Amino acid sequence: MAAPKVTLYYDIVSPFAWIAFKILRDSPTFSKCDITFVPIFLGGIMKATGNTPPIRIKNKDKWINQERIRWSRYFSVPIAETSPEGFPPNTIAVQRALTAISQQAPEKLVPATEAVWQEFWVKGDGKATQPEVFGPLFEKILGASQAKAVIEAANGPEIKARLSANTQQAYDSGAFGLPWFECTNSKGEKEGFWGIDHLGQVVDFLGLDRSLNRGFRAVL
């Protein structure tokens, strides 16, 4: 039978996408899955669906900060106790840059993405989504010349169109927020799942072993 497949659509701004990313990468539960990470622009999804950012909803803004800490503890994912200064930032620059990496050096997308997330959601640097911060991070992973090429490409029409297409792809698959999981089980059946609190449903749909990670005791 074919290996279960998971596509995670993500934007650096989402703490829950960060938690999902770490679980998919590190948990033995997902070790036999084919996993694809696709950078999108969350602002585009919110606009397309008419969704309201949680931080703009009274009471939910406080609740969501507590919720991300709860889930990070369940799965032992490092995360800052307080949101980065200036949260939420505009992430269009870093998402375009990550999209450029996915096209020019796809094998470097995961470490580059994790480096920015570590800076933003673990160290709490509110400027991590800006070129002056993520540029040097990319240099360490890609080398100076390739990092420069990526930054330049990120401002070009091809990469801008690619990010828009990624975002449209997520929307077409049903996304209205992040994290959004597009899953295909060993039978070839496909379904979409939203939110870190539905990760247990992802595991069950894919026929994976919950017992390999204690954090799944907290999810449906």
UniProtKB/TrEMBL annotation:
InterPro entries listed in its UniProt record: DSBA-like_thioredoxin_dom, GST_Kappa/NadH, GSTK, HCCAis_GSTk, Thioredoxin-like_sf
Record's catalysed reaction(s): RX + glutathione = an S-substituted glutathione + a halide anion + H(+)
Active site: 14
Cellular-component GO terms for this entry: mitochondrion; peroxisome
Protein name, UniProt field: Glutathione S-transferase kappa
PANTHER family: GLUTATHIONE S-TRANSFERASE KAPPA, GLUTATHIONE S-TRANSFERASE KAPPA 1
EC assignment: 2.5.1.18
Species the sequence originates in: Aspergillus mulundensis
Domain DSBA-like thioredoxin: 6-206
GO biological process: glutathione metabolic process
Family (UniProt): Belongs to the GST superfamily. Kappa family.
Keywords (A to Z) from UniProt: Transferase
MF (Gene Ontology): glutathione peroxidase activity; glutathione transferase activity
Pfam families listed in its UniProt record: DSBA
Top-rank taxon, per record: Eukaryota
Gene3D superfamilies: Glutaredoxin (3.40.30.10)
